[in-house]
Amino acid sequence: MEIVIKDGVKYTRHFFETESQFEQIILSQYKFIFGDNAILFDKQKIRTATGIGTIPDAFIISPDKLKWYIIEVELASHNVYQHVIPQITRFKNALENIHNRKALVKFFDKSIEDDLTKLAGWISATDDKNVFRLISEILDEEPELIIIIDDQNEELEIASKNLPFNTRINIFKTFCRDGFGLGDNIFQFDILAVNKKITKEKIRLQQTVDIKDKNGELRKKASSPSAVEWAQQIPELSGMHGLSNWTDICNHYKLNYEGNSARRVLKAWVKKINPIGFQYPMLKNEYTYR
């Protein structure tokens, strides 16, 4: 039995009987896990291409890191292969659907714009009032899956290495003061984010991500470019004024990006048309070997 002693008072490890009760505790502590600027979004159904609906326990956007997360809350007593893996596979299939991505961008944007607390936090963290544009760029990237579980599960740790998302497992332990139940608690978990304020100049720079190629060799993924930097490398755009973001560039080329990410639309257009006869730089993932 695990216990914690605080000021001479004993707190005993608590195990939840239902996932919903555990989930309520987790979501009440999300800012301690992801940082003060993290924004939590309630459950939102997404569908696979065949129409099968699936609902993650929550979504979180971290404007500090320009990242988004799928949150899955689990009990260690659940069967990994019957419950956890099928659910996560449906998440992946659903997010492959472009309509779901568009719907999520609109959902996140509206949730922030309609909530003054969220909007104030967003602006404070990013210095950017254009919520829709930045969310679109964040959702251009793959989300990270965070599985928060009440105890260690060896099967889940093994299975997580083959999941279709970059996955982290966070063991969240709850200790209750004797005689008080869930009224007086101590929590133990890993912190996944550090608060920091980002400026407009840095807002489109992604953190460096280490990945492995098919041979297992470590590579470094180049950070995403800014629209200004990218445009300066295109002869016909270099020196033009008013091209400060991906939307401006799409407007210059008369590309319809309504309901989608302007960068995603431009990337697809470059790949299909390539109108000036050479590969546009930095719109594809570039890697350098260490």
Write up what this structure looks like.
- It is a single chain.
- With 290 residues, this protein is α+β, with helices and mostly antiparallel strands.
- The protein folds into 2 domains: 3-188, no CATH class; 209-289, no CATH class.
- Helices cover 33% and strands 21% of the residues.
- It contains 10 helices and 14 strands.
- The protein has helices at residues 19-28, 30-34, 80-95, 98-113, 116-126, 131-138, 154-159, 227-232, 246-252, 262-273, and strands at residues 3-6, 9-14, 39-41, 46-47, 53-54, 58-62, 67-74, 144-149, 166-171, 173-177, 185-188, 209-212, 218-221, 287-289.
- The strands form 4 sheets. The chain has a 5-stranded mixed β-sheet.
- Helix 7 (154-159) links the parallel strand 8 and strand 9.
- Helix 9 (246-252) crosses helix 10 (262-273).
- It is elongated and about 70 Å long.
- It starts with a strand and ends with a strand.
- The model is unreliable at 199-214, 218-223 and 284-290 (pLDDT under 50).
Summarize this structure briefly:
The protein is an alpha+beta fold and 290 residues long. 33% of the residues lie in helices and 21% in strands. The termini are far apart.
Give the helix/strand layout.
Layout: E1 3-6, E2 9-14, H1 19-28, H2 30-34, E3 39-41, E4 46-47, E5 53-54, E6 58-62, E7 67-74, H3 80-95, H4 98-113, H5 116-126, H6 131-138, E8 144-149, H7 154-159, E9 166-171, E10 173-177, E11 185-188, E12 209-212, E13 218-221, H8 227-232, H9 246-252, H10 262-273, E14 287-289
Parallel strand pairs: 7-8, 8-9
Antiparallel strand pairs: 1-2, 2-10, 3-6, 4-5, 6-7, 10-11, 12-13, 13-14
